[in-house]
Write a structure and sequence with these properties.
Largest interface: A-B, 36 and 44 residues
Number of strands of chain B: 8
CATH architecture of the largest domain in chain A: 3-Layer(aba) Sandwich
Number of helices of chain A: 14
Radius of gyration of chain A: 19 Å
Shape of chain A: globular
Distance between the termini of chain B: 62 Å
Order of helices and strands of chain B: HEEEEEEHEE
Helix content of chain B: 10-25%
Structural class of chain B: alpha+beta
Distance between the termini of chain A: 8 Å
Number of helices of chain B: 2
Helix content of chain A: 25-40%
Order of helices and strands of chain A: EHEHHEHEHHHEEHEHHEHHHHEE
Oligomer: heterodimer
Radius of gyration of chain B: 19 Å
Largest sheet of chain A: 9 strands, mixed
Number of strands of chain A: 10
Strand order of the largest sheet of chain A: 3-2-4-6-1-7-10-9-8
């Protein structure tokens, strides 16, 4: 990917749902960071830098990195935060490894449900000049996008319903005995309750390292970053064509160029795509050059993206199964990394050599990232 | 053992400066019952709501342009939840590209029965013509106007 020090993922801890309330948020962060270090076979003494990502409104703390430095091991260590998106913390951690100034990075993100109303907390993300007077939270933004998509692709609702059924089916296989069952989301027409799941508390942590570090420690289960891309759309929804995802097109090009991928549909063994609603997964199919929109309904119906299909998408069950809102993007990346490392658990696929992770965050996926991970150090 | 929680409620008031551009926009809504956008001289795009600079060209916008009151729906949703300090649900809101504008303005849709979401959605279909309506008593706020089917 043109980086002197190609970063590899050497440890992951994915906790997409944390139901018991016997741990405080700081303790949840501590648990998750420790799990990732254990998975990597490292201790905090091996970590050269830390990047965290959190949402201050959800946490109920301003500058939430202040409280996170203790639980992640950031005291007297290099630690930075990215409040924009969890996947941005991953990108920053990877770039820090790539500079060669750091052998390792610990990246941690979390998303609690301690606020009385997630929609109200999300409304703080809207500008106070023109948009606070609207019920504009992330789900409203997704619903607005869905209405625009349905207009330009009339059978999009049929495809969306099939995508929702696919991901829920995957989720039931990945989580046969879930500690809790996520409630259906509220109605924001045209997004129906069956197309979303209510927010849950979750967290994720990953450990990244340089090739030299991997070699020195004789680490074997590594998912190498073969390509990365990220881009951002305008913050005002009215400035955007919501039926398209140009930032993801740009991010995909950057990631595919880095990985040397010219035929995406045949390049991957599986993918994890952000399915905040099934419409966002459909838009990602197109923007990632996996499926044009006029084939959404046909490919959703014939199981092309289901388990056993040409390109299984969201074997984890995706966001439609567990929705820890802020850290869902980084969880998509960690899921792909674990598939390549052979540590995905119940939904582990066979012989995964290369996978694609898509992270879309914010109002109608304002922030878009694409990450190509592979078993081989070089694409 | 007993697991305890600590409930906290914070009430902080912010007085956000709107700046000259947004102030002009709201003053025109309040005093004239009219919506104005601002033009980017380089691209000729008329930005609504108005911005003092284009985030596309990063150049200051120049002249004011009166837009609407007619326009077409670009996106919509119907909400059935209560939000703080907003009208009682259900309500429909979305984005409308007003005549003469190049970006869409957010606002509420009124005058449509929302009990049956599918039936209401058919009336609010993207592309439908609407018209901005203004309250008799206006304070210079987003709730001074709404959209109705043309």
């Amino acid at each position: 990917m043109g980086l002197r020090n190609q970063p590899g993922v050497i440890g992951c801890a994915i906790r997409p749902v944390i139901a018991p309330r016997d741990r405080s948020l700081e303790e949840v962060i501590y648990d998750t960071a420790q799990l990732a270090l254990t998975d990597a076979g490292l201790t905090i003494e091996d970590i050269d830098g830390i990047v965290v990502a959190a949402n201050d409104q959800f946490d109920g703390r301003s500058i939430s990195v202040m409280m996170a430095s203790g639980p992640t091991g950031g005291v007297d260590r290099d630690i930075m935060s990215t409040p924009s998106a969890s996947e941005h913390a991953f990108v920053l951690g990877a770039l820090r490894v790539a500079t060669g100034q750091f052998r390792t990075q610990l990246v941690v993100s979390w998303s609690p449900t301690e606020v009385s109303s997630m929609p109200e907390a999300q409304r703080l993300g809207a500008d106070p000049y023109f948009h606070r007077a609207l019920p504009l939270d992330e789900l409203s933004a997704h619903a607005l996008q869905a209405s625009a998509v349905e207009q330009v692709q009339p059978d999009a609702r049929t495809a969306a319903e099939a995508v929702a059924a696919k991901n829920r089916s995957h989720g039931q296989q990945a989580w046969p005995q879930p500690p809790v069952t996520a409630a259906a989301g509220p109605m924001r027409w045209p997004v129906t309750p069956a197309m979303t799941s209510a927010p849950v508390t979750g967290s994720v942590a990953m450990v990244l390292a340089t090739p030299d570090f991997v070699q020195q420690r004789s680490l074997r289960d590594v998912a190498w970053i073969q390509g990365m891309g990220w881009a951002t759309e305008p913050s005002f929804l009215g400035d955007r064509d919501l039926a398209t995802a140009p930032a993801l097109v740009a991010a995909a090009k950057q990631a595919y160029d880095g990985a040397g991928i010219t035929d995406p549909i045949s390049a991957f063994d599986l993918a994890e795509l952000t399915d905040a609603t099934p419409y966002t997964e459909l838009l990602a199919y197109e923007a990632l050059s996996l499926c044009p929109r006029d084939q959404w309904a046909a490919r959703a119906a014939d199981g092309s993206f289901a388990q056993g299909g040409k390109l299984p998408v969201n074997l984890s069950g995706g966001v439609l199964t567990w929705n820890p809102v802020f850290c869902t993007g980084m969880i998509r990346i960690a899921e792909v990394a674990n598939q390549i490392r052979g540590r995905a658990g119940r939904h582990q696929a066979a012989n995964v050599r290369r996978g694609l992770a898509h992270a879309g965050s914010g109002f109608a996926m304002q922030y878009q990232s694409a990450i190509v991970l592979g078993k081989e150090a070089r694409a | 053992m007993e697991l305890m929680e600590r409930q906290e409620t914070w009430s902080i008031t912010y007085n956000h400066a709107l700046g000259e551009t947004a102030s002009y926009f709201y003053a025109k809504i309040r005093d004239e019952g009219a919506i104005y956008g601002k033009r980017c001289a380089k691209t000729n795009r008329v930005l609504v709501p108005p911005r003092s600079f284009s985030d596309e060209t990063l150049l200051p916008t120049t002249d004011w342009v009166k837009v609407g009151p007619g326009g077409r729906i670009e996106a919509f949703t119907i909400v059935y939840e209560k939000f703080n300090n907003l009208p009682d649900p259900p309500y429909a809101f979305g984005y409308v590209l007003l005549d003469g504008a190049d970006t869409a303005l957010g606002g509420y849709f009124k005058g449509i029965d929302l009990k049956d979401p599918a039936a209401a959605a058919a009336k609010l279909k993207v592309g439908t013509r609407v018209k901005a309506k203004f309250a008799e008593k206006r304070t210079g706020a987003m709730l001074d106007f709404w959209f109705e089917l043309a």
